[in-house]
Amino acid sequence: ERQLVESGGGSVQPGGSMTLSCVASGYSRRVFGSMAWFRQTPGKEREGVARINEAGGILYIDSVKGRFSISHDTAKNTWYLRMNDLKPEDSAMYYCAARRDLMGNWTYNYWGQGTQVTVSS
């Protein structure tokens, strides 16, 4: 079965770090042109956090700039979200997403099941 599978979520104290991973299981390498991470908290809309494309383009939302880093390992068909200096407001369900083209917007049509990140003292 082809699916996006996230891992790496959990609980961490404020100021801590965490790395999320997303494996495109069952998909051929380079089938996706753009990959992203989104997050959602109860009662709020899902928001894009960071995205990366095969041309090397990277975008972050302002609230995570300088703290989060998105990367992609083509050989492993996996992308990552390294999160440093985590804050309680970063607590959310995090989703990885992908699309086949390289268009620069937040519209994605392949989604993982989500992994919970909780930042609390």
* Counted beta strands: 11
Assembly state of the chains shown: single chain
* Mean model confidence by pLDDT: 96
Task: Characterize the biggest β-sheet.
Answer: 7 strands, mixed
Structural class category: mainly beta
Number of helices: 0
Helix content: under 10%
Write down the Rg.
13 Å
Tell me the overall shape. globular
Protein model, in words:
The structure is a single chain. Helices cover 0% and strands 50% of the residues. With 121 residues, the chain is an all-beta fold. Strands 2, 4, 5, 6, 9, 10 and 11 form a seven-stranded mixed beta sheet that branches. Strands 1-3-8-7 form a four-stranded antiparallel beta sheet, with no helix packed on it. The termini are far apart.
